[in-house]
C-alpha cells in the first residue's frame, strides 16, 4: 500500500517537478581548502546558511590553530563549519566523531584558559556521535590514496579497523512516504537488472534495462544504462534478473546507486494502477 502511494507521488512529480537534491558546493573557506574533501553543503552543523557566514565565524579560531595545540583541530573545525557533502548523506551531513572533538579540546583548551576562555558550547563534544560504522568521521577514516588518473566523486569514508563484511552492512531504507519526501530522490525508474560489475577503484557499476521513467531531471533512455556506486559496497544490493523500482540520485549527469536510496521489487499491479 505504501509503495503504491510512493509510485502515485512519483507520477505526480512527472508534471509537477520540485527542487532536486541538496546542492553541494566547492569549499571556499581558506582554512578548509587543505582538507581531504573539496565539496561542502550549507547550512553547516553550526547553522550558518552560507560559507560567507561560516568564514566570519571560523576566523576566530585562526590564532588557536596557529599555535599547533592539536593536530586535529583544523580537521575538526572544518568538519563542523564546512561538512563533507556526499551523496550518501545529502540531507543528514556527517559530523566529526566525538573522539576527534575530545582530542582537539584536550590539546587546545589549556591554551584557551590562559586567556580566560573555555571550550565553546557550540562545539560541545558530548553532542557528537561515537564512531559506529561510518556515522561520523575522523582523519584516520578518510581514504584518499587512489590512482592519480582516477578521482573519486567524494572521499571514501571507511573505518581502518572494520572488515569488508562490516563495511558492507547495508542500511534498509523503509519505503514510506515521509522517507521519500525527506530524501527527495532525483530519479525514479522501473528497471530490470542486467549485470553487476566491480571496478578497480572502489566502485561498482550496475547495468539495468530501463522499462519506465517515473521521475528524472536529465534524459534517461529506455535502454540499458549504468548505475554507479562510488564504494566497494553495493547498497542497496541488487542481483541480475531482478525487476525493481529504483529511487536514487543523479550526479554530474550520472545515475547513482547509493546507500540510503530505495530499491523495491516491482509489482505489475502497480504499473496497471498508476500508468
UniProtKB/TrEMBL annotation:
The UniProt entry, under Pfam families, shows: Fz (PF01392), NTR (PF01759)
Leader sequence range is 1-21
Q: Which cysteines are joined by disulfide bonds?
A: 24-85, 32-78, 101-125
- Stored InterPro entries: Frizzled/SFRP, Frizzled_dom, Frizzled_dom_sf, Netrin_domain, Netrin_module_non-TIMP, TIMP-like_OB-fold
Among its keywords, does the record have Iron?
no
> Which intervals hold domain NTR?
168-275
> Where in or outside the cell is it found?
Secreted
Please classify the protein's predominant subcellular localization into one broad category.
Answer: secreted
Q: Which SMART domains match?
A: C345C (SM00643), FRI (SM00063)
| BP terms from Gene Ontology | canonical Wnt signaling pathway; cell differentiation; negative regulation of canonical Wnt signaling pathway; non-canonical Wnt signaling pathway
Q: Name one GO molecular function term.
A: Wnt-protein binding
Record-annotated FZ domain positions: 19-139
The entry's cellular-component GO terms read: cytoplasm; extracellular space
Question: Which keywords describe this protein according to UniProt?
Answer: Developmental protein, Differentiation, Disulfide bond, Glycoprotein, Secreted, Signal, Wnt signaling pathway
Q: Which Gene3D superfamilies match?
A: 2.40.50.120, Frizzled cysteine-rich domain
Q: Which family does the entry's similarity section mention?
A: Belongs to the secreted frizzled-related protein (sFRP) family.
The name on file for this protein is SFRP4 protein
What organism is recorded for this protein? Tichodroma muraria
Amino acid at each position: 500500500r505504501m509503495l503504491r502511494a510512493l509510485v502515485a507521488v512519483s507520477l505526480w512529480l512527472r508534471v509537477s517537478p520540485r527542487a532536486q537534491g541538496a546542492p553541494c558546493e566547492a569549499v571556499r573557506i581558506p582554512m578548509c581548502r587543505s582538507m581531504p574533501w573539496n565539496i561542502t553543503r550549507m547550512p553547516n552543523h553550526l547553522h550558518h546558511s552560507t560559507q560567507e557566514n561560516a568564514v566570519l565565524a571560523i576566523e576566530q579560531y585562526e590564532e588557536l590553530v596557529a599555535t599547533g595545540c592539536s593536530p586535529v583541530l583544523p580537521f575538526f573545525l572544518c568538519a563542523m563549519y564546512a561538512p563533507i557533502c556526499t551523496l550518501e548523506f545529502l540531507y543528514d551531513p556527517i559530523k566529526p566523531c566525538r573522539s576527534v572533538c575530545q582530542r582537539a579540546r584536550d590539546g587546545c583548551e589549556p591554551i584557551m584558559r590562559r586567556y580566560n576562555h573555555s571550550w565553546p558550547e557550540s562545539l560541545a563534544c558530548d553532542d557528537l556521535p561515537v564512531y559506529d560504522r561510518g556515522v561520523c568521521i575522523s582523519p584516520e577514516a578518510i581514504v584518499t590514496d587512489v590512482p592519480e588518473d582516477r578521482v573519486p566523486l567524494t572521499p571514501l569514508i571507511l573505518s581502518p579497523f572494520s572488515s569488508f563484511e562490516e563495511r558492507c552492512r547495508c542500511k534498509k531504507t523503509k519505503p514510506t512516504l515521509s522517507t521519500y519526501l525527506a530524501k527527495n530522490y532525483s530519479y525514479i525508474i522501473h528497471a530490470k537488472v542486467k549485470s553487476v560489475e566491480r571496478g578497480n577503484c572502489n566502485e561498482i557499476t550496475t547495468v539495468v534495462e530501463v522499462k519506465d521513467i517515473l521521475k528524472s531531471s536529465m534524459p534517461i533512455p529506455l535502454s540499458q544504462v549504468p548505475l554507479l556506486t562510488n564504494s566497494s559496497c553495493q547498497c542497496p544490493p541488487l542481483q541480475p534478473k531482478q525487476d525493481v523500482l529504483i529511487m536514487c540520485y543523479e550526479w554530474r549527469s550520472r545515475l547513482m546507486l547509493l546507500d540510503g536510496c530505495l530499491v523495491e521489487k516491482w509489482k505489475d499491479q502497480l504499473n496497471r494502477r498508476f500508468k
